[in-house]
Design a protein that fits this description.
With 346 residues, this protein is of the alpha+beta class. 42% of the residues lie in helices and 15% in strands. Strands 1, 2, 3, 4, 5, 6 and 7 form a 7-stranded mixed β-sheet that branches. The relative contact order is 0.11. It binds iron/sulfur cluster. Iron/sulfur cluster binds next to helix 9 and helix 12. The site of iron/sulfur cluster has 14 residues, from helix 9 and helix 12.
Amino acid sequence: MLGHIIRPLTEWYKCNKRDLPWRTSPTPYRVWVSEIMLQQTRVEAVRTYYLRFMQRLPNIRALAEAEDDLLLKLWEGLGYYSRVRNLKKAARLIMDQYGGLLPASYEALRTLPGIGAYTAGAIASIAFGIPVPAVDGNVLRVLSRMLGSYADVTAPRVKEAYRMALLDIVPGTRPGDFNQALMELGATVCLPNPKAAPDCPACPVRGECSAYSMDCAISLPVKTPKKDRSVEKRTIVLVTVAGKVLLFRRKRGLLAGMYEPLNLEGHLEVDQLRQILKAYGCEAGEIIPLPSEKHIFTHIEWQMHGYCVKSIAFPLPDDAVFADLAQLADAYAVPSAFKAYMRYIV
Ligand code: SF4
């Protein structure tokens, strides 16, 4: 049954695909970078990042040789920073083992850091014309509805079953267009509820769709609810000396290598903060409370209290810098979690 969707879907895609910068001249490198950026991130948010990234790092050699600070700066605000670290790791490996060219093989692509089944399928089909599927969240939703299946799409065995079903039908001619057409349908027509609703009357494959014929599209796909996030209380302190702000380089964790203001556990009172600053050797002047903010990561929510502290001197600890506004704009990557507070540095 799925085989019947190929023609109407690819015809629809030809006329309705969005004009996206990575779709013009889809070289393996451009497809790879765009697919990594698009993971967990909206298309509209990726456009500017992608263009800037390509301008600074136009090829695999440039990526392999890029400084970590530059990479993190180019990724600043996109989140999930392990993605860009893996890009560089993979680029180095490609330089060492594949003569600087992405391998034209699904299996070889899968062995590279940060490249899973979906990304390998996307690069292989779009850039190399290899007939393999690329199953992302959009495709899972479309397939679950097309098949009228109530199987949980977050289960690995269900994802694999859908991948295998597609492997049987991906066309040998322009497989990348077929994969992108499925994804495009999920992104623009077969939309997820409750955020939006599928626009079935506009769908080119509604005649083949079980959910449409059974009028149950909005109850699909079935997904296991995500676990509740844990909550952490933090106190964020903007210490400024002579118009520059104190930033620490994070050594560990997801945000390793990025810069952050003084970031302390718990919600601290002014007196407690003064004691901590003293331990750093800082004689704090006025301590000004800032509004509370929160930031949501995948598994954790930070509930933050903030302060601004003007200090005459602050002995610079290891792994710390004083940054002015120009350096904040060009040199030091600060995670979005602190964005709400960084705007007070003016
Ligand atoms: Fe999705 Fe509706 Fe098209 Fe079925 S008919 S694939 S539910 S948009």
